[in-house]
Amino acid sequence: MAENIEIEKASSSSQNLICPLCLDIFDEPTILTCGHTFCRKCLKKYDLTHQDIDHMVCPLCREITKLSANRVDDLRLNVSINGCVDDYHAKCGGMNAVLEMRQKCTGCKFQQDALSFCRTCNNYICDKCLQCHHYMALFEDHEIVSVEDVIEGKVSIGHQFEKCSIHKQENKDMFCDDCKVRVCLRCVVVGHKVHNIKNQSDFEQELRRKVTALAQQCAAKKAELEKNIQNIEEQRHEVHIAMQKLLDDVRQAYSIKVKELEGNLQDLIEQINELKRSFEDDLNILKSKDRQRIKSICSSITLVDNDRLGHLETDSLSAHNLLCDELGAMLKEVTDHTTAEVITKKAQEKRFNPADATCLDLGKISEPIDHTSTVAITEKTQKRLNPVDKSFLDLGSISGSDPKLEIIKCIDLRRRMFGMTAYTHTSVAIVYGFITRGVDIIDSAGGTKRYTNIPHDVGYGDIVIQGDSACVSTSSTEAHVYYLNGYRKATINVSGTGYYLRLNRSPSNEILIANGANQVYIYDPSGSTLKHTVLTKHRTCQVSSTRSGLIVTSSCNLTNPSVVTVYDRDGNAGESLQAPGRVYLYATVDEQDRVYVASVDWKNRKVVIRLYDLDGLNLKERAEFKALDMTLGSIWCYLVSLSPDLLAFACDKKLYFIKVSL
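The structure corresponding to this sequence follows.
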C-alpha cells in the first residue's frame, strides 16, 4: 500500500519535471538567467539557430541570457530539479517505469486501476465504469479501447486533460492565449473574461497546423540553403579565379615597373657618366694647355741659350733678342691655379634629388560595389588593377642646388610659328603656315636646318616626330603620316571645327590629336586606327600624355578662363587649373611625368612657368619659377619638354631654350 502511495506521489510530481521543449522528463536540467529550466540537449538544439548572436532568448518569457564562448555548455545546472529527477527515477524504477505504471480510473472517485480507455469520454475507466458503459444506454455509442493497447502504442488516445488545481473537478480544456496557460471553464469565467480563450483541442490542432507549415517551410528553406551553399562553392571558384587574375595583373605591373625603374637607373648612371666625362674633358684641356706651355718654354730656352751668341751676325742677334722677349713675356703669364678647383667645385655641387613629391606604387584595387550577397562578393573580387596614375616611377634626378629656370638661347624664327614638337633632347621642329612653308629643325646652340624628310613646300599646322615617321596636320580635318623617305603612310580624317589639328605623341608613340572641340582623339602609331576618344569638359587646343596613359589638356586661348585638366582614358577628370582673365595656359609633360605649365599674361606681357606633380588626376604645385623676360608677339604659344632639364618655349616669331635646374 505504501509503495502505491509513493508511485502516486511520483506520478503527480512528474508534471513538474517536464521540459517545456521536449515534453519529457528533464535530462541535465539547465537553468537560464530568467529562472526557467530546460534540458541541456534541448537548449543546444535551440541554440543552433542563434549562433550569430552572443545571447539566448528564453523560449518562454523572451528574457535574454548572455552566453560565453562555450555557449550552452557554460550554463548552470539546476541542482534542485536535477535532484528531484534523480529521486523520481529512483522511486519509479527508471524512466521507462512512467510508461509502464498502471493508470488509475479517471471516470469515478474510487481511483481503481484502469482496464480500458473511453475515447468518447476521454477517461481511463475501471471495471465498474466499464460495466456502466456496457449496460447503460447513456454510454452505448462510446468507443472503448484496451489500456494494454494504449500502453503498447497500438491505439492513440489523444490528449489527457489535466485537472484544475483550483476547481478540482474541472478539466483544463481551455487555453488562454494572453497568459499562455491552460485553464478550466470556471477559471475563464472568473479570471480570463477579456482574454483570448481557445478550446484546448482547437489550440492543439492550430498548433499542429502551424508545426506542419513550419516543417514544410523548414524543408523548403533547407533545400534553398543547400542550393545556396552549392552556389557559394561555385562563387568561391569564381572568386579564386578573379583573385588569381588580380594577382597576375599585380605581378605584371610589378614586372613593368621594375623594368621602368631599371631604365631610370640606367638613365641616371648615363647622366653621371656624361657629367664625369665632361669634367674629365675640362680637366684634360687645362692639363693639355699647361703641357703645351711647358713645351713652348723648353723650345724657346733651347733656342736662346746658345754658346755661339758672340759670333752671331746682327740679324741673328736681333732674332735671338726677339725670342728672349717672347720667352720673358711667356714666363710672365699668370699660371691658372683656380680653374681646376672651380671644375671640382661644380662637380661637388651636383646633387641627387630623390623623387620626393611622388611615390613608388604599382596601382590600387578599386572599391567594392556591394556587400549584401554572394554575387556582390564575386563582383567585389572581379576588380581590375588600375595602373598607378597619381605618381611616376622614378629614382630622382641629378641637378644643382636651387630650383630655377634660365633662358640659355633666344632665336628669331623665319615667320610666325604655327606648331612645335621635340626633335631631339636639344632641338625642336618648328612648322610654319602657308606663307612661309616647310619645317625648320633648330637646336639649343642656334643651329638651323630644313627638315626635308616630308614635302617641304606645304604649309603645316602642327607636327610630331615618331622615330621612323612624322605626322603633320595640313588643315582642320586632315593629318598625314609620312615615312622618313617622304612616302605617305596614312591619312587621318577628323571632323573639322575651323582650327588646325594640334598633334602630339604619347610615350608609346600613339598619335594624340586635339581640334579645339570637347574631345581628344588617340590613334595608334601608324595613324590607321582610332583607339580612344576622350571627352573633355573644356575645348582642347593642346594635349600631352604621361607614361601611365593619363591625358593632360590645355584650352590655351580657346576658353576664358583658360584651363589645364588631367583625364584618364575613360574620360574621368581631375580638378582643373584655372587662370585669371587674359592669362592663357600652355602645358607639357616631361619624361618623368612632371607637368610644366606656362602662364602667359598677355596684359602685363610676362610669362611664369610652374612645375606640377601628378596627384591622381589632380595637379599638385611643386615649384613656381620667376617670371621670364620674353617677347610676346601673340597669345598663341607652345611649350615643349625636350629633356628633364631643358624646355623649349615658342611665341609668334621667337623661340626660347630654357634650362631647368631642380
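Residues 200-304 form the longest helix (105 residues).
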